[in-house]
Amino acid sequence: MWEERNKQLYRAFEFKDFRDAFAFMTKVALIAEKMDHHPNWSNVYNKVEIFLCTHDAGDIITAKDEAMAKAIDKLL
């Protein structure tokens, strides 16, 4: 579930292994390019953390972030 942290939407994901985590990140990257909205994220082995905020709006949560979170959720 997405939660608000420091004016950002945050969610952690855990996968079976690095390969599955990286495949997920690749799919998210394609969504980000299509939406022209890129996440702050990190990956350590099978864990991916994503932070969404709109930099152009002063690093706050906007409808763009909510739309991207929904698109990411559809990948699961």
UniProtKB/TrEMBL annotation:
Q: Of which family is this protein a member?
A: Belongs to the pterin-4-alpha-carbinolamine dehydratase family.
Query: What Enzyme Commission number(s) appear in the record?
Result: 4.2.1.96
Q: Does the keyword Cytoplasm apply?
A: no
Give the GO biological process terms.
tetrahydrobiopterin biosynthetic process
Task: Supply one GO molecular-function term.
Answer: 4-alpha-hydroxytetrahydrobiopterin dehydratase activity
Protein origin, superkingdom: Bacteria
Q: Which Gene3D superfamilies match?
A: Transcriptional coactivator/pterin dehydratase
Write down what this protein is called. 4a-hydroxytetrahydrobiopterin dehydratase
Catalytic activity from the UniProt record? (4aS,6R)-4a-hydroxy-L-erythro-5,6,7,8-tetrahydrobiopterin = (6R)-L-erythro-6,7-dihydrobiopterin + H2O
Q: Which InterPro entries match?
A: PCD_sf, Pterin_deHydtase
**One Pfam family of this chain:** Pterin_4a
Keyword Lyase on entry: yes
Coiled coil regions, renumbered to chain: none
Keywords carried by this UniProt record:
Lyase
